[in-house]
Write a structure and sequence with these properties.
This protein has 94 residues and is mostly beta strands. It has a single domain, classed as OB fold (Dihydrolipoamide Acetyltransferase, E2P) (Beta Barrel). It has no helices and 7 strands. The strands form 2 sheets. Strands 3-4-5-7-6 form a 5-stranded mixed beta barrel. The chain is globular. It starts with 5 loop residues before the first strand and ends with a strand. Keywords: Ribonucleoprotein, Ribosomal protein, RNA-binding, rRNA-binding.
């Protein structure tokens, strides 16, 4: 895997190659009934501040699926992209 070159811009890191910039998340498709859109649930573990116990939290993202290939239950990776609609700003990557 290539290393990204990072420049410092007023204290904030900026990726030199914008094609590689953006978050990549992994989750499970929970809904794919819409045209060109799927719903992906991404889970993560967070430590509870009071009880010091790890708890699983889930967040759903609307993702762009131009080929309509996503099926319910399928594990996918999603990448942040430009806003495609009001709530859709991730794209499914294979």
């Amino acid at each position: 895997m290539e290393e990204k070159e990072i420049k410092q811009n007023k204290g904030l890191p900026v990726a030199k190659n914008t094609a590689q910039a953006g978050k990549v998340l992994h989750g499970v498709v929970v809904k794919s009934a819409m045209k060109d859109t799927a719903t992906v649930a991404v889970g993560r573990y967070v430590k509870d501040p009071k009880y010091k116990k790890f708890v699983k939290q889930t967040k759903k993202y609307l993702v762009h699926d131009p080929e309509n290939t996503a099926e319910v239950g399928q594990r996918v990776s999603i990448k942040e992209s430009r806003p495609i609609s009001k709530r859709k700003h991730f794209v499914i990557i294979k």
